[in-house]
Design brief:
There is one protein chain. By secondary structure, the protein is mainly beta. It has one domain: Porin. Helix content is 10%, strand content 55%. Strands 3, 4, 5, 6, 7, 8, 9, 10 and 13 form a nine-stranded antiparallel beta sheet that branches. A two-stranded antiparallel sheet has the order 1-2. The chain has a two-stranded antiparallel sheet with strand order 11-12. Strand 9 and strand 10 form a beta hairpin. The radius of gyration is 27 Å and the shape is elongated.
Length: 231
């Protein structure tokens, strides 16, 4: 008898809880959820501006990469803004004293676009985010000894523009209410490049053309990001 009463009580409690939950869930959840004392809508959002510093590979050579980010944060859990990066692999070029071989070149450029960044457990001191950049950029190849005098022949392409898609993942630390540090990685994917490097060989008295890998910019990135704002 006691067991039957207990089951009846638990069943009644479950039904009441389900009805209450259903009524609560009937309300549309929106990004703007708060109101001021005067009844006007209050935005529960924020923004941040930051800079990323990192390492990547460009044309099979080590390269630094730095880039800014600016984003609006919707209800703490989704950032929408702009981001990008600038790169150069000139430090990886082989050299002989102060002379760089003419058949060696370095690549430099940059890209930027829309930033989409879902943030998981944003209010926790340690959490994750998944930034994605979709946009375009510009890249050029040149000799370390100076701009190649033969760069602008009609059949020579030492620069190109490209489309870029770069998804990533970051581990974020809330250092202060206005400051976060993020450590993570991403993969930069571009369309095929159409580039060549051309130089004059004084020993042979002839021009030599090197076809640059069309996937020279596709690579992983490792970045440290500093973010300042209202989170």
């Amino acid at each position: 008898m006691k067991t039957l009463k207990l089951l009846t009580f638990l069943l009644t409690l479950l039904v009441v809880s389900s009805v209450y939950a259903q009524k609560s869930n009937d309300e549309i959840q929106v990004l703007v959820t708060k109101k001021n004392r005067d009844g006007k809508v209050k935005f529960d959002n924020g923004f941040y501006a930051g800079m990323s510093f990192g390492w990547t590979m460009i044309d099979g050579k080590s390269s630094f990469i730095i880039g800014p980010r600016v984003a609006w944060i919707a209800n703490h859990y989704f950032a929408l803004g702009a981001g990008g990066g600038m790169f150069s692999n000139f430090m990886s070029m082989p050299r002989n004293d102060d002379y760089y071989p003419l058949d060696e070149y370095f690549m430099m450029g940059g890209y930027g676009g829309i930033l989409l960044e879902p943030i998981v457990l944003a209010k926790h001191p340690v959490h994750v985010s998944f930034p994605v950049i979709i946009g375009g950029g510009f890249v050029a190849a040149q000799s370390k000894n100076g701009w190649n005098d033969y760069s602008y022949n009609g059949d020579y392409y030492n620069n190109d523009v490209f489309f870029v898609f770069e998804p990533g993942a970051e581990l974020e630390l809330n250092i202060a209410k206005f400051f976060r540090i993020a450590l993570g990685g991403s993969y930069r994917l571009t369309n095929a490049l159409d580039m060549q490097y051309k130089y004059f060989d004084e020993k042979t008295g002839e021009f030599t053309t090197i076809d640059i890998d069309k996937h020279a910019l596709n690579a992983f990135n490792v970045k440290l990001s500093l973010k300042f704002g209202i989170f």
